[in-house]
Amino acid sequence: MTMDKSLRVRKGASNVRGVLTRAERIARLKEQDLWGDGRSPLGLPKVRVQKMSMKKKKPKKEEAEGAAAAKPAAKKK
Q1: Per residue in 40-50, pLDDT tens?
Q2: pTM of the full structure
């Protein structure tokens, strides 16, 4: 029996997961000091998952002026 293409795991295709496992949720609650030692692991409170997004850096004015001056000189031939 073959596996469907949508179920295959590709290398480098790990996206940010929107759901944490129970152990990950407990670890986050311990970091926030919201977890007691004798507490039941069932019925855990929600834990927010923060997604990180990288913004493109704007070039500094000095670098932008230097790059703009170098481009016209390279085009002349």
Answers
A1: 888 888 888 87
A2: 0.47
